[in-house]
Amino acid sequence: MPRVIVIIGPPGAGKGTQARLVSEKYGYPQISTGDILREMAQAETALGHEIKSTLASGKLVSDEILAEVIQARTSRSDCENGYILDGFPRTVNQAHQLEELANQQQKDVLLVRVKVHEDVLFKRLTGRRICLKCGEIYNIYFRPPKVEGLCDLDGNALDQRSDDNPDSVARRFEEYRSSTAPLIEYYRNSGRLIETSGEGQVEEIFEKLCLLIEGAVSR
Ligand code: AMP
Questions:
Q1: What is the reported pTM?
Q2: Which of 87, 80, 67, 71 is nearest to 19 (CA)?
Q3: What are 170-191's pLDDT values in tens digits?
Q4: CATH among 3.30.360.10, 3.40.50.1100, 3.20.20.70, 3.40.50.300 for 4-214
Q5: What is the DSSP letter of 157?
């Protein structure tokens, strides 16, 4: 049966990185709702402006907009055998939407939770800097560029995501605790939850994650 693998964790847990690696290994497309929404926020339309200000504040975009985004993206042909969701569902209501969608698409849902302590997350997020040109990611605490503010690879200026400032980060943690954390119980109760630590080397985290996914899929 084709699968939907949901990677869930607090902001800064490394969901995107692990989702990309899982996608490369198993050949399922990675669907990042944060990336899709950041792209939609570039549009000079009422919807684009609404999404842009919601993202900058660290609040959640409405479930209605997300339902359309997910429906449209997962009905593309590359999702036929399965797909990886990074950033969706984020509310219990969105989890219900996904149950319905997965049923229609005749796919099983598996939830992978990546756990990281909050003090580590705060530094990962507020220290994150991104090259405007090539997208290389740095961190002023854990992986600083050789020259402050400039990309090691192409010398271009580094930027900070609009929602990586301390106020927005605090808001995103709050949204995670109140809206997203309850999903964990929802999936645990139905026996579809895998949990692993997101601290340490990326490759080690990934290896453990693959063992857990393969164990769950073969059950
Ligand atoms: P991320 O890149 O996953 O950290 O998402 C960045 C921002 O996009 C979040 O803080 C939300 O404002 C918005 N977002 C992403 N996914 C969702 C979702 N499933 N529901 C509501 N808002 C979302």
A1: 0.87
A2: 87
A3: 999 999 999 988 999 989 988 8
A4: 3.40.50.300
A5: B
